[in-house]
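Email to the structure team, subject: DUF6114 domain-containing protein model.

Hi all, the expression group asked for a predicted structure before they design truncation constructs. Nothing fancy, just the tokens so they can compare against earlier work. One-line instruction: predict DUF6114 domain-containing protein, return tokens.
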Amino acid sequence: MVFRKGWPYDAAIVSAIGGIIIAYVGIFGLIVLLHTTHTSFDLLLEITGTLSGLLILISSSLLYFNKNRHVIWGIIIFVCSFLSWAGTSGGLFFGFILVFLGGIMAISWNPDPMVIRRPGQEKTH
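Reply from the structure team: attached below.
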């Protein structure tokens, strides 16, 4: 899936969609917690999950605009996918899968396409 050649577009979009799901579930959980009786630990977990979703959104947009640091943004996205389990259950598991795959795609993205040479084909510089 390559929409723009030489750009980690697909990794950024997949991560952003997962981040939106995680942040939405987190914000909805915060609203529910604030209207019911809760402990401070529940609130802390929900805030952690929500912030991880927002950090995923920020990191995926920075991945899109700064492709030279794709490994750093991919690692941040990957780590935040596990942090999203705190409070938001990984965005009801679907958001976690999208962010997990987007982080792996960002880390493994290669700007140069692989060239397959046939036997007897010479290298040209």
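The radius of gyration is 18 Å. Residues 6 and 114 are 12 Å apart (CA to CA). Ping us if the truncation boundaries need rechecking.
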